[in-house]
Amino acid sequence: MNKARQQAHPAAAGDGRELARSHLQVHFWFGEQVTDTFKVFSVFAFAWFAAAFFTAKSYRLFENTEQFGASGKWALALFAGIPLLLVAYVVLRFYWWLSNYISQVSGWGAELKWARWFWFGALVVGTYLYLDPLDNIGRQVARAPVVTQFAEYGIPAFNPMLVAYRLAVAVLVLLLIWNYLRQGLMIAGSWLREAWEFAVSLPQGLAVTLVNFLRPNVCVEYPEYRSEIPEHFRGRHRLTIGAEGQHRCIACRACERICPDRLILVSAVRNPATKKLELTGFLLDNSRCCFCGLCEEVCPTGALKHTLDYEYSCYERRELVLDLFGEYLRDSRALRERPGGVHVG
Q1: Is there a single domain that holds both residue 143 and residue 242?
Q2: pTM exceeds 0.90
Q3: Are both 187 and 254 inside the same structural domain?
Q4: Rounded to whole angstroms, how far apart are CA atoms 341 and 72?
Q5: Is 78 exposed, middle or buried (0-12, 13-18, 19+ CB in 10 A)?
């Protein structure tokens, strides 16, 4: 049951368009539900059935059965009866598959356990009523008082069960047709939307391509020529240096706390005389920096800044761990050694 449901709805986890397309593909029932052996057996059964009854009809074997003896009648029964039983078995297998498919597609009984047996019984009983090989039902209907009364008014005899069966088949066919039409409309609508999106996006893309194709070349022959760097560019970090060689960092560690990548490490010691923290180290791992600028924004004294420097590539990642305090000591040495320069311990 679950396998048949999966085959009836192979794209249940997909989108609506794939689901509709899978339903529209009307698979022959000998597709993937049975083995190759049963496929060959079915072809053989139908071929034997067709050959037997074509031969019987051509030679009128069923009309002259009184001419045959007991052995001849047995041979005729085997010759025509065995393929009839085989075809009946194949048809019942087909009805068993079709009953599950009808319960799924028609929308009635898809979640009921006994729905498949109901549709299977309806198909079998309905087929017998439609064929009525021994005309038992027709003879009983002809003897019914209601039918005989209708015959007095010129109304021919009819089989109400056969009429009801044909109406049920007509309703079922309409349900199946409506289901396929609805899914076909869904697929057609998706195709139209895709075609419209393609029709709109294609000229837009061509317009962008044409505009950029006609623009002058903006490539720069780096490093001989360099493009102008905007003022708000976020490049390499550095500690700002004042006029007397002092830095502005108060070791509050606000930048260390705000950094989303946790790549700043600030170290400081407290001066016993002034009771203030004095910076002793400032490390920044620039290999993992996302250049968000939060460290620059949160700094209360403006000590940490982004420069316009972007040329600091190297061969080792450890070289990208910047010692900003060491760079400050190196770059501010001349200012600190002048008269009036600050002393950094």
Answers
A1: no
A2: no
A3: no
A4: 131
A5: exposed
